[in-house]
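Hey, can you fold this one?
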Amino acid sequence: MTTTPSHSSHLTRIAAPEGVAASPHYSHVTWGKGRFVAVSGQCALDERGEVVGEGDPAAQARQVFENLRRCLAAAGATFDDVVKLTYFVTDVAHLPAVRDARDAVIPADRLPASSAVQVSALFRPELLVEIEAFAVIAA
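Sure. Predicted structure:
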């Protein structure tokens, strides 16, 4: 079943191309016209470089999305411009907390493409989640 593309200004999202199973958690395909923005992986560090929410994946995910918001804003972008998120988690059991934090800032009809990878560790042992983002800003 082919889904109708969702258009948001300069971006197009296809939740499930024909022959690909739909997911409520991401769009399979996203593209747009404009300026490309890459945001390095963000972790749950505050402006002083201290870990927020040690041992708490939900608190860490919220801080990560706040850091992503700030990085996107520095480039003139918002979460509406995000075409791809990549999640790195130390345990896939953290993914529901990550999705909840994402859903608080990205509407269900604007979900970007995404990938999730379980890793053995991040650069500091108390960190549980890292997320990188790619965005396209309207030209």
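The chain has two helices and seven strands. Let me know if you want another pass with a different chain boundary.
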